[in-house]
Design a protein that fits this description.
mainly alpha, 5 helices, about 0% strand, transmembrane, transmembrane helix, membrane, coiled coil
Length: about 190
């Protein structure tokens, strides 16, 4: 906590129950940097990203994840086309089977027409989510929240000036007190 008014607590031990403001995220990791030079935060971020992006383990995991994501997208597209052709078959072909010539007497049970709209919509929504994930999270690392330098750094000129002014003020008061009571100190020392 750097007292800048931005909440930055991470529950890495899962002490708190999950609710609207607390979310447990297992595929994230949190990096905190404490530095006297906030200007170097960009270099720290670039170094961390370079390390992760050049790590063979992370590269292989990302390739596998992207391949599986593409396979799921292809499978979803196949399912969508099959469901669409099944819907066309049910609607057009089976209605043709029900036509009979005049003079025939046929007893049929009323066939229930099955609608595939919800299934098609769910598959399409799933495909859109997968496409979005492929577009947005295609890199090994996605930085969700970059390092934010504190609003008032600890080593700002104002902070340094305050610290030294307070120190010299206290030293000055002590010197004034010692010099003003110097004669009294000598008398007390001579008595004992």
């Amino acid at each position: 906590r750097n007292m800048d008014g931005i909440p930055d607590m991470v529950d890495d031990k899962n002490n708190y129950d999950e609710d609207t403001s607390v979310t447990h995220m297992s595929s994230r990791f949190d990096v905190r940097v404490k530095t006297l030079h906030p200007q170097s935060l960009d270099k720290v971020r670039d170094g961390i990203l370079y390390h992760i992006n050049t790590n063979q383990f992370f590269e292989k995991n990302n390739r596998i994840r992207l391949r599986q994501l593409r396979e799921r997208i292809d499978k979803t597209e196949t399912e969508l086309s099959e469901l669409d052709s099944l819907q066309n078959y049910k609607y057009f072909e089976e209605r043709q089977k029900g036509k009979f010539s005049e003079g025939q007497m046929v007893f049929l049970n009323e066939q229930e027409t099955k609608l595939f709209h919800e299934s098609v919509f769910e598959l399409y929504q799933s495909k859109q989510d997968l496409d979005m994930e492929l577009d947005i999270y295609s890199e090994i690392v996605t930085v969700l929240d970059d390092f934010t330098p504190p609003a008032q750094p600890v080593n700002s000129y104002l902070n340094i000036a305050k610290t030294w002014v307070i120190r010299f003020f206290i030293i000055g008061i002590l010197l004034v007190l010692i010099l003003s009571f110097w004669g009294n100190f000598k008398e007390i020392y001579k008595k004992y």
